[in-house]
Design goal:
Elements: H1 5-36, H2 39-56, H3 64-88, E1 110-111, E2 114-115, H4 117-132, H5 162-178, E3 187-190, H6 197-210, E4 215-219, H7 220-231, H8 242-248, E5 251-257, H9 264-280, E6 284-288, H10 292-310, E7 312-315, H11 321-328
Parallel strand pairs: 3-6, 3-7, 4-5, 5-6
Antiparallel strand pairs: 1-2
Helix pairs in contact: 1-4, 2-3, 5-6, 9-10
Residues 102, 104-105, 116, 118-119 line the site of zinc ion.
Length: 329
């Protein structure tokens, strides 16, 4: 995945921060230990000096081998002395080594000439943040979702009420978020405006991010115009690949499907996104005010049948909550 310059910069800054933290903590540990064991100071200084001595040896000719042997021997003695101190202080033997967040690359981002997985994780995290910058992702959670706004009125005449139905949907979404993984099923949340679809899908997205997954959220309109700009070379930011991100992110949340300006391009792209992600087994959450029938009308039966056949359908019901909240103020 290719990212914008900004994402790389942020990831590198975080690696720098981690490295500095490891170094600072090490010098704190060292200083405190020297207070308790003053002889440690000379040992550490001598060990550091041995490093410079070894460099000097290069110009020494015949005597070099013997000199290096001597240095090595002295170095081992110092290490033993330090170990003895650590043991008597009941401290682990790596106490005077830097403790990096990632031991594999020592917080440099590369190990053995390859990009380390910790660096990849950071890139993913900042790329997600960048794409979600316009969304209220951090503002929605399961805790601030209230079933009180849904009336206790009968739904079908089979004992089911609006509140009960929404209770089932709430529980399902909460469980879905708890168990979320790259192999989770895709969801279609459909029903009138203002029934909590965006709220619950963002709550799921928030939990997935907490688990370390790359989540991309956007309204159908925003995501599709981003794609369109990229496809037709109208985007200034060439380092960000919208299509690749939408097709490959761990969770894609498309909000308000059906409100975008519909063209041949958007209809084809919607099918491509839905189909490609289903084939890769990656979860997508789609929210729409359209009924299933209208979905079919707008995006062709091909799109609708992929969704109906493969997605878990969640039918939201009740009355516009935003309206109810406004009236109760
Ligand atoms: Zn690493």
């Amino acid at each position: 995945m290719a990212y914008s310059e900004n994402v790389y910069t942020k990831a590198k800054e975080e690696l720098d921060r981690r490295r500095r933290k490891a170094e600072t903590e090490l010098s704190e540990r060292r200083s405190e230990l020297i207070l308790r064991y003053p002889e440690l100071k000379d040992l550490l200084r001598e060990m550091a000096r041995a490093g410079y001595e070894a460099v000097k040896v290069i110009g020494m000719g015949a005597d070099a081998a013997e000199y290096i042997e001597k240095l090595k021997k002295r170095n081992l003695e110092i290490q033993d002395d330090i170990k003895t101190i650590l043991k008597s202080a009941n401290l682990p033997l790596d106490y005077l080594e830097p403790h990096y967040t990632c031991e594999n690359c020592e917080d440099t981002g590369t190990a053995g000439g390859r990009i380390c997985s910790c660096y990849k994780e950071l890139l993913k995290k900042y790329a997600t943040e960048e794409l979600c910058a316009s969304s209220p992702l951090k503002l929605s959670s399961f805790e601030d979702f209230s079933l009180d706004y849904y009336p206790d009125t009968p739904l079908n005449g089979d004992g089911m009420t609006v509140r009960k139905q929404m209770g089932y949907i709430f529980d399902y979404c909460k469980k879905y978020a708890e168990d979320f993984g790259r192999d989770s099923v895709s969801l279609l949340m459909y029903g009138e405006t203002g029934l909590g679809k965006t709220h619950l899908s963002l709550a799921i997205g928030g939990e997935a991010i907490k688990k370390g997954y790359g989540v991309v959220y956007g309204s159908a309109h925003n995501l599709l115009s981003r794609l369109e700009n990229e496809r037709f070379g109208r985007t200034a930011d060439k380092s960000f690949e919208a299509e690749k991100t939408l097709l490959e992110c761990d969770l894609l949340i498309i909000d308000d499907l059906g409100t975008e300006f519909s063209t041949q391009f958007t209809v084809a792209e919607i099918y491509n996104i839905i189909n490609t992600r289903l084939i890769s087994g990656l979860p997508t959450i789609i929210n729409t005010n359209l009924s299933i029938a209208k979905l079919e009308e707008k995006y062709s039966p091909r799109v609708a049948s992929r969704i109906i056949g493969e997605y878990q359908l969640l039918r939201f019901c009740g009355r516009d909550i935003r309206q109810l909240k406004r009236n109760s103020l």
